[in-house]
Amino acid sequence: MKYRQLIIVTLILTLQVRAQNNNFHIKYENPTSQLGLGLLILDYYNLPIIEIYNDKNLIDKFIDWDSNKPDVDIYPKFYELDYGHCDFVLLESTKTYHKILVGLNKVKYVKNSKHWNFISWTELITNSFGVTRKRNSRESNKLRISKSDNSKEIPIELKTHENFCVNQLKDNWVNVKYDCIYATDQYIDYEGEPCSNYIDKCPDNKTGWIMWKKDGELLIQIYLRP
Fold this sequence. Notes:
This protein is mainly beta. The protein folds into 2 domains: about 25-120, no CATH class; about 130-225, no CATH class. It is built from 2 helices and 15 strands. Strands 1, 4, 5, 6, 7 and 8 form a 6-stranded antiparallel β-sheet that branches. Strands 10-11-12 form a 3-stranded antiparallel β-sheet. Strand 10 (about 165-170) and strand 11 (about 175-180) form a beta hairpin. The longest helix is centred in the N-terminal third of the chain and has 22 residues, at about 1-25. The model is unreliable at about 1-20 (pLDDT under 50).
């Protein structure tokens, strides 16, 4: 009887795992347990399949991973091949290897080669077309006059769509200017342009600080393209 119960429990757990795998859908941005130093960007056109290892010596191979087939166990932080994104969180880099996150919290290693490019969070965010607060954080992540949750709030109208033009990053905070033109009829004149091209038309009193990360989680969405 115990043996039969063990088989039943094992079968249930197997079916649950399969169901989780079947329900997994890769998104443009995917969850990771930390943000590391920045993003390691794969040149998947020239290296569609990468060798992932368990060790920094690149001896114990974990898997040959096909960038066209992400799944619940192995996926990048940002993924959209049609727009050039197969970007992993980078934890450490040497002349021989890159230490990365694959999936939520798996730490693995890939060979350092010309097919990888690194970009820091600072460079990524400051060179973006703009950022917006994720909708589930807008009530708590207010625009403030200084880098503190206790500092004075700068009131802005809550809209379905919003954009901030980035000035600089410091620690967990990013200094931004509210984009008063985005999501208005006037925006059609600037569509496809970075907000830096027209942000001087907005009042300076809407410049302040929002948090861009907390506890290893991104609190903002980054517009990497128009």
